[in-house]
Amino acid sequence: MSEKTLAQAIRENMKRDGKRFWAGDNISEYIKENYKEELIDEATAAFEQVLDTLLIDRENDPNSHGTARRLAKMYYNEIMAGRYDPAPDATAFPNDSQDRYEGMLVVRSELRSMCSHHHQPVSGVAYIGIIAAEKLIGLSKYTRIAQWCARRGTLQEELANDIAREIEKATGAKDLGVYIQAVHGCCENRGIMAHSSLTQTTVLKGAFKEDGNTKKEFFDNIKLQQEFAPR
Ligand SMILES: [Zn+2]
Hints:
With 231 residues, the chain is α+β, with helices and mostly antiparallel strands. Helices cover 44% and strands 20% of the residues. Helix 2 (35-53) packs across helix 3 (67-79) and helix 5 packs antiparallel against helix 6. The longest helix has 19 residues, at 35-53. The chain is globular, with a radius of gyration of 21 Å.
C-alpha cells in the first residue's frame, strides 16, 4: 500500500465536508500556503505518466524533457490559479455622501479562461456594468475579480454568473450586468474547426433586467467601448 498523496488527503477532506470541487469551483480554503509545491510535484508525476501513455519520449526529446513539470506549474499557477487562490482583495470605498456617484459604470476586462470539457483556451472580453451602490471598488479590481473567476475550468455561461455574483459581493450593487464575448479553442482546434465562432453570454440583474432604458444604456456603452477599442 502506497502512502496517501496530499491531493488524496485534500479530496477526502472536501468530501467529508460536502464541499463541491468541480473544475470551476474555488477551493482555496483547503489549500494552505505551503501545499502548492507538493501538489505541483504530485501533478508532475501524473503528467509524466500521461506523456508516457501518449508514447512521447520525454527522456530523449529535449522539448518534452521538462514538459510534465511545466504543465503542472501552469495548471496550478496560471490557467487554474483561480481555483486555488483566495479572492483578490478589493477594498471598498464609501459612496454615500451627498454628491455620491449615481451613474452607470462599465468596465471592460480582458479574459483568459479554459473550457472544462476539453481544457482548451477561451479568450475574450467581459463588460461589467453596475449602478453604484453605497460603496465603490478600484477600477482595476473589476478585472482582477473577472480574471480570478476565469482562471478555472469553466463554461462561458457559468463564468458570466460567477463574475456577476462576485462583483455583487464586492460592490454591494444589486443593479448589474455582465456581457461576455469569447472565442473557444475547442471550436477552433477540434471537430467543426469553425475559426470565427464567437460566443456571447449575458447576465442581467435588478434594473439592468427590469428597466429597458438601463439595459439599453448598458449595451450602448458596450458599443461605444467596442468602437473605441475594437476586438
Ligand atoms: Zn470545450
